[in-house]
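Re-running Tetratricopeptide repeat protein to confirm reproducibility after the cluster update. Everything else is unchanged from the original entry.
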Amino acid sequence: MTTSPNPTITEKQSNIIPFLPTGNFYFSYGIQAFKKRRFDSAVKWLKKAIELSPDEPLYPCQLSVVYTEVGSYHAANQVLSDVVANFGEEYVDCYYLMANNYAHLGLLSDAKKYAEKYMARAKEGDFEEAASQLIEMLDSLEEDEAENDYAFEDEDELILYQETAFYHLEHEEWEEALPVLHEMMQLFPEFTLAKHQYAYALFNSGNEEEAIDLERKWLETDDKDIHSHVNLATFYLQNDQREAAFQHIEPLRNVFPMHEHQKLAVAETLTRAGYYEEAVERFRGLKNKIVVGRRGYYKWFSIASYQTGKPSRALQLWEKGCKQFPHLSEEGGPWIHQ
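Result of re-run:
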């Protein structure tokens, strides 16, 4: 009996066209994930797209946008710098994107430089209006800072109050600091740092609920106030209310202040919260000699260094801090703080 031949499995397999994903395939997945705010997935798919299509500049540019969205401004600018280096300066949009990232980082001179670079090279570019507004904002910030510096330049009385309050705070003399700060709040209401220092001293003197209520009230007025977030994060952490603390820590992880004392406050808070790698980066960015010489700088930079596997640097910082602030030696060392 004769039977008709059936194709073998091997023959069937030979008729199947294998699916080979392209860079565009992964790119489309990356865009979908980005729109759904699944940023980790977006980064994964976009990196695959770049790997398969290294000659396509659109893919790394989109990756930089994802990094910007999650606050990884340094990473975003590294990607954009690579695009310009690899594909040429005709990709002028990169300059605006870099300017925007530098502005978020608080690096105003770099932000202005790249915004002006974009304006000089772009011919009716998509970001022309945004770049122009960014330059105006940066110019305004520079003027405000200059005016503020001038406004306080001759305020000998304010300086005297500042130095007195600073001494008490650095030496944890809370009861002595409170009346000085209270007077500052009455005499110099425009010097807003005093009220946050007052709340901090209040909390540490045992009036915890009052201090928290004050900061929560001030935060309702300005929900982006860095010092309110810093103080509330610190207060909640000290009370082991970590869930409440992280509502204020998360905003701080994505903010890069212009002023040195704010930079220090954020770095200290990130250390308290256990974000040691991020804290070390913030500490390393501090340049102002007055800020670098503070008790909090030595203590918390030492702790962050120790927790990131740099015990020698930690010990060096701790010893320097103990020389200037002998009471610091009573806290044992950076290895005590976990």
